């Protein structure tokens, strides 16, 4: 019985930790797709408006994230505005 209670407590703690991490880092369904159609190459504006990508890299702005997506072909989402 004690083992069952301990297992239940550990499961609840793990669930709470996962929920906390999801809220803190904006994970799960909160990812936002970058609006890359808005930006044309060859360059990006020099404005500093950092975004945190799902690759856990901070990009100076959404346009530079779009350049990275175009160069590498990876589907990087925006976790949140601001640095990672």
From TrEMBL:
<keyword id="KW-0722">Serine protease inhibitor</keyword>
<keyword id="KW-0732">Signal</keyword>
<dbReference type="GO" id="GO:0004867">
    <property type="term" value="F:serine-type endopeptidase inhibitor activity"/>
</dbReference>
<comment type="function">
    <text>In the male reproductive tract, binds to sperm heads where it modulates sperm capacitance by inhibiting calcium uptake and nitrogen oxide (NO) production.</text>
</comment>
<feature type="domain" description="Kazal-like">
    <location>
        <begin position="30"/>
        <end position="84"/>
    </location>
</feature>
<comment type="function">
    <text>Serine protease inhibitor which exhibits anti-trypsin activity. In the pancreas, protects against trypsin-catalyzed premature activation of zymogens.</text>
</comment>
<keyword id="KW-1015">Disulfide bond</keyword>
<dbReference type="GO" id="GO:0007286">
    <property type="term" value="P:spermatid development"/>
</dbReference>
<feature type="signal peptide">
    <location>
        <begin position="1"/>
        <end position="18"/>
    </location>
</feature>
<dbReference type="InterPro" id="IPR042167">
    <property type="entry name" value="SPINK2"/>
</dbReference>
<dbReference type="GO" id="GO:0005576">
    <property type="term" value="C:extracellular region"/>
</dbReference>
<protein>
    <recommendedName>
        <fullName>Serine protease inhibitor Kazal-type 1</fullName>
    </recommendedName>
</protein>
<keyword id="KW-0964">Secreted</keyword>
<dbReference type="InterPro" id="IPR036058">
    <property type="entry name" value="Kazal_dom_sf"/>
</dbReference>
<dbReference type="InterPro" id="IPR002350">
    <property type="entry name" value="Kazal_dom"/>
</dbReference>
<dbReference type="Pfam" id="PF00050">
    <property type="entry name" value="Kazal_1"/>
</dbReference>
<keyword id="KW-0646">Protease inhibitor</keyword>
């Amino acid at each position: 019985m004690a083992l069952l209670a301990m297992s239940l407590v550990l499961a609840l703690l793990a669930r709470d930790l996962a929920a906390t991490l999801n809220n803190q880092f904006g994970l799960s369904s909160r990812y936002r797709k970058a609006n890359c159609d808005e930006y044309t190459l060859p360059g990006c504006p020099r404005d500093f408006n950092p975004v945190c990508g799902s690759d856990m890299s901070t990009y100076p702005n959404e346009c530079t994230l779009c350049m990275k997506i175009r160069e590498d072909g990876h589907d990087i989402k925006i976790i949140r505005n601001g640095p990672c």
